[in-house]
Amino acid sequence: xxxxxxxxxxxxxxxxxxxxxxxxxxxxxxxxxxxxxxxxxxxxxxxxxxxxxxxxxxxxxxxxxxxxxxxxxxxxxxxxxxxxxxxxxxxxxxxxxxxxxxxxxxxxxxxxxxxxxxxxxxxxxxxxxxxxxxxxxxxxxxxxxxxxxxxxxxxxxxxxxxxxxxxxxxxxxxxxxxxxxxxxxxxxxxxxxxxxxxxxxxxxxxxxxxxxxxxxxxxxxxxxxxxxxxxxxxxxxxxxxxxxxxxxxxxxxxxxxxxxxxxxxxxxxxxxxxxxxxxxxxxxxxxxxxxxxxxxxxxxxxxxxxxxxxxxxxxxxxxxxxxxxxxxxxxxxxxxxxxxxxxxxxxxxxxxxxxxxxxxxxxxxxxxxxxxxxxxxxxxxxxxxxxxxxxxxx
Amino acid sequence: xxxxxxxxxxxxxxxxxxxxxxxxxxxxxxxxxxxxxxxxxxxxxxxxxxxxxxxxxxxxxxxxxxxxxxxxxxxxxxxxxxxxxxxxxxxxxxxxxxxxxxxxxxxxxxxxxxxxxxxxxxxxxxxxxxxxxxxxxxxxxxxxxxxxxxxxxxxxxxxxxxxxxxxxxxxxxxxxxxxxxxxxxxxxxxxxxxxxxxxxxxxxxxxxxxxxxxxxxxxxxxxxxxxxxxxxxxxxxxxxxxxxxxxxxxxxxxxxxxxxxxxxxxxxxxxxxxxxxxxxxxxxxxxxxxxxxxxxxxxxxxxxxxxxxxxxxxxxxxxxxxxxxxxxxxxxxxxxxxxxxxxxxxxxxxxxxxxxxxxxxxxxxxxxxxxxxxxxxxxxxxxxxxxxxxxxxx
Lengths: 394, 394
Prior knowledge:
Two copies of one chain form a homodimer. Chain A has 14 helices and twelve strands. In chain A, the strands form three sheets. Chain A has a seven-stranded mixed sheet, sandwiched between helices. Chain A has 394 residues and is an alpha/beta fold. Chain A has helices at residues 4-11, 15-30, 49-61, 64-68, 77-91, 106-117, 133-140, 159-165, 188-205, 266-279, 287-295, 304-320, 341-350, 375-391, and strands spanning 36-37, 100-103, 123-128, 144-149, 170-175, 210-214, 237-242, 255-259, 332-336, 353-354, 356-357, 366-370. Chain A has two domains: 4-47 and 301-391, Aspartate Aminotransferase, domain 1, CATH 3.90.1150; 50-295, Type I PLP-dependent aspartate aminotransferase-like (Major domain) (Aspartate Aminotransferase, domain 2). The first copy, chain A, starts with a helix and ends with a helix. At the A-B interface, helix 1, helix 3, helix 4, helix 6 and helix 7 of A face helix 1, helix 3, helix 4, helix 6 and helix 7 of B.
């Protein structure tokens, strides 16, 4: 009598949360400092002080009914103008305020973009490894998720593998770079290859193939790595952004969609985005945090801790003999497992190491290690990783 | 190539917004004080000062990562406990924290409740007049909205009209009291009649019929009117609440669902609610405002201004000869029109009166007058209403 699909989704505790809750129990048993929990992607670095200052300033400067009242459904106009100006300055684009739709975070950006375009029978392509909710969002919009394997070794993309996956039913490609769970940033070469194939296939089939980017980790990159801005590479692009990770605000649910104004039908697409947001019950993005995001645009939390963690973890794990792809961004490290990832994670637990198997990310034989933790936790966990490597005689 | 349904939804500017934007233009032409805009339901009374104080206190007292980090998907546990305790104290119920799911406002409460239970072929009943988004939410969940006319004159419900509308496909009744757009509060007698019929039909068909309440206006009632709490009248109830109107926070998107624990399958229903929230991309309700809502629980904005407006508007309009149902709650007055409501609204515009035709609320022959405005606007508008009445020789 209820929706079986929704009930199943609600009852399937995600593997990540399962491990996290095991960790909490274990911490109570043996002490928090003895359990090395690498399961969650919750930023460990606080929001920059300017965030709380912006909140205080807004409370002081604006009327309560203006701060907390409805904004227009696509978001406050001056907030959208500020964001458009920032994007244009950073990326040399010509985005207008009316190309931007403020969202309730990255998940909302993604499902609204999918819902805006999904028709029965449509296929949405993504590369493995990918964030598990992609499958949920595509399915709930009545479409099918098609997985394409990234290249073993560096998780860049072989042009041929994308080309063979595109069919006349392909509506869009969902791209996530920096990637959760691998931390890999797609190179400009890879991006150009991808866009070239999309262009070619559009011509071949005589209809648009859209590109949906999911980029909450855009600013979390290390060593001067550049993340190509897709609006500059492909006209049929929707950029999905969130301030969750750059400003360490994941609970506040604030992000946006940019609809490329170089798209032939860009006003129709923007209308469909507005319609999808309305149909899914979003009304408007949280009004105070729309303004906070605008005031803090271009700032990030102190990501040097993530870089320190990345360096320490990557150099240590490879020294112990593990195979990892060096992550250039986000705060995840994806490590190859010497046997089935589920079995490996159980063995890791004996050393109090809590890791997430790659299976749910469409990539068995790997584990995700979230290094958005205190550096101290990484330092303390290294002997455990070393023993685990010794157990496998790496 | 895009979703026609989403594009149409995005392009259909709601009638309400259309009038609101006409009003803005008109205000620029002749001055804001000369245009009497009664179109929008945006609270005119500021949030109680305790709201901004709670925000400041939370920023001072809690760590940034705790304030702005993810909460669990159903919401912070202590927030849910505070809300459960409050409901139990107010209504003599026995709600647990685990019966509560925090939402991104009333629209989210409603669509999540519908999505949790909707199966192909399902019918959801609501009484006219009703908020137009009900139709959107029911349709996007793949079900059908069935309208049942309220009783002409007082907008209570004739038991027979509900009984004949229920079919074996009826999944739920959506109830909105105090009502938008009529301001009517369903009496305890009406509630008992409704619940009696639902009980009878459940037995007759041998399956559950759910009751979904949409009650963002619960606290906005005047003259000691009581709004029956449905958990005490019907076991298969989901309460949908929002702090938007009671705390004047509509832009912040914060509310909750209570799943009655007297429901036979209450854990399944709660799981389906969690699944629907996840599938629709809500992740968690805004984290700072979850805590603000808990700290300000039981408080309301100063609603005496709404009561003053209601009294002045109702007594004046009826004196001029208009027929209105006296609203006991919310901040809307629903007035019968002497001719087609659309034509009537156009004539009202000549007097700079901006009113919303009832057609979109499933109730032609009426207009909605939102009196969440400064009392001064009502005082100044009365001569215009009087002239309009004279034009119709009322």
